[in-house]
Amino acid sequence: MASNVLTFDYEEALPRLQVLADIVSHKIILSTIEEAKTAQQIASENELPLSSTYKKIKRLQSLDILCVERISLDDTGKRVLYYKSRVKSVEFSLRKVGSVLQLERNEKACKCSNLHSELTI
Length: 121
Hints:
Elements (H helix, E strand, L loop, with lengths): L4 E5 H12 L1 H9 L7 H8 L3 H13 L3 E8 L5 E7 L1 E7 L6 E6 L16
Antiparallel strand pairs: 1-5, 2-3, 4-5
Helix pairs in contact: 3-4
């Protein structure tokens, strides 16, 4: 298996599939594949409510789908987080035995915290 692919069995894949199927989460992931963005940028570009954007970002981070690439300070001294998708593509195989979810690592997200080159659960 390629070193840039994470593989999950059905039980571990289910929460990720639920998040990936959500339209808001989907928009956040697609918006952050190429470049890191703030929650405000993501919400604005995708016409999403900011509160929903923050809630989905937190969930995506808990599943290691999104990470903080960098932190900066705005003009008022407030921390600004820039989020980046750790996932470039998704493939799900539904089978009678051994359904599998594969997430291809986003090579442009290498600056984010450590991502196992391959994880099989």
